[in-house]
User: Fold these one by one.
Assistant:
Number 1:
Amino acid sequence: MANITSGVHVADEVCCIFYDRKVHKCLPPEEIKKRKKAVNFCLSVDKKCIIVEEGKEILVGDVGVTKSDTFKHFVGMLPEKDC
């Protein structure tokens, strides 16, 4: 886990997702479809670690196929009672 000055740890999975999204790689079309277009992160239950919110992601291959309105789907992934 990465540690930053705020004292909140960052899960390794979060770092991997961040770097994968940041770096544009030359990939075959099937691999490009598996790239994450959007991902929600949240604090762990004990509020000490930033983690990936399970099931809250949009893959590049989902856009226009299983998710016709990507923005509406993304807004629907956001928590209603959290900032």
Number 2:
Amino acid sequence: MNGRPSSTGASADSSTDRSVDAATDTADRPTALLVVGTRPELVKMAPVCRALSDADWRVRLVHTGQHYDEALSDTFFETLGLPTPETNLGVGSGSHAAQTARTMVGVERLLDGSPTTDANSPADADPPTVVLAQGDTNAVVGTALATCKTPVPFAHVEAGLRSGDRAMPEEVNRIVADQVADLLFAPTDEARDSLRREGVADRPTQQVHVTGNTVVDACLAHRTVAERESSVLAALGLTPGEFVLATIHRPRNTDDHPRLRRIVGALDGAPFPVVLPAHPRTRRAMESAGIRPTGALRVTDPLDYLDFLRLLDTARVVVTDSGGVQEEASALETPCLTVRPHTERPETVAAGVNELVSPAELAGRLRTVFETDAESMVGATDLYGDGRAGERIVGLLSAAFGVDSGRETTVSEVTE
């Protein structure tokens, strides 16, 4: 891989030469530092983590603490095949600027060997071979900005997604992370083409690869396990194919109380059961707006991964504003209605398995899809890959850093 040219002068900038080749001799065994901040990031990074371990990489998993709560138990990590994070950066809640800044400081300390805010964090004087982050959260942009000012290369998993909506903080995070990344793993050709349009793929210091999305890896790996081990259907009194699953958590939908009332009203007025595992943001917003469902809608606490996967796999329709759920629904052949004006997963809309709807349209469209259109909104299971994205990503990492992973890597590559 072509890294950035090393500075030949004695300026301070020479300390931040980010040639990938320069990182290969940090240790005999390559080390990947994986930084995550939310539950979806853990789910999507798990296939990469497992593939790294299988390829004899040393894995260091770090949680920023953005969504670190009691639900993230040892069982959660065991279910996904993840090690317990070696440290929690303690980022917590706060404004976008505060979360990003705390992440930057924490990651910088990890990379230069300084103590972190976590007293239990092990000392590690040697920098990692590469830093990876996934998706579009403040954890990602903070990690990207901190890493790009060091000699350690940064790899962005799920690169190139674009909704065209700069009002979404996640869109800004994606753009910034992609601009400074050294390796970019795009889930689809369309994501790669977005990077091309932005000029990212034309730079000799960056590599762009189409790998598929690791969320499909996670879905397919745990689908049978969820069917066997989850008892959520019985616990909620649900019959496969006869209910709707809903997830609503975007600030656009929760912070605008009239909008939230329309969404909840559409779900609560349905002539079939609707289950909403409530994100804390959603529950607080409903309480603040005085919204109390009394009809078809059943609001539950957040579910563990296997229970949620089981509901998504057996629902007649899913209503969501989540990007990841749109991908999971296509892989599991569950028709999807997305309550947003834009999506960074346009492949699902083009394939006819996902529709963008407004709160005003939701009630009517949900009933029509449930009763008549559901069968026509399935069949595009391979939009985001075949369940081997994690293996491909690790094969590419191993190739970039001269590691014999024992894996054949067959992916698209864009370099000039």
Number 3:
Amino acid sequence: VVPRNVTPKYEGTLSASTYPQYDLTSPNTRCGRGAMSTGNSSEIATVIAGSKVGFRIDFWYAGSLGGVMLHDGPLLAYLSRSPDQTPQGLMDYQAGGDWLKIHERGPDNHTRWFMPENWTQYNFTLPVTTPSGYYLLRPESIYPHSQFTTTQFYMNCAQI
């Protein structure tokens, strides 16, 4: 989702498996499982600092409930600036650089996480102070469990 319109599926996003990540040391936690191999097949979205942006939940598997977030927990958004500030440099970027958290949605109160019914999109504002350039924009959803090794991490990236 970019300013004022919903883009077609995968436009500007790196195609990744929707299965959760558990290993925070894996490169797959950068943009999702297998996403870094799809950079050249994804478009680069033009986004202006200060704009409202977001990510739409897509189908998980055949026969599932479809594009509805099924887990509660924190929602976060990060930016990582491509070291090579060219379109091809962004498409080749493996997301191994620094990440800056630009948005966070925590619990609604002391007893429950934010989780509206039939939630389908995660929207937020790109900071107005963001310098122009080529970035990966990553949304992240964390489904917490009492045992850390079973906490689920969901993420993807868009090239902007």
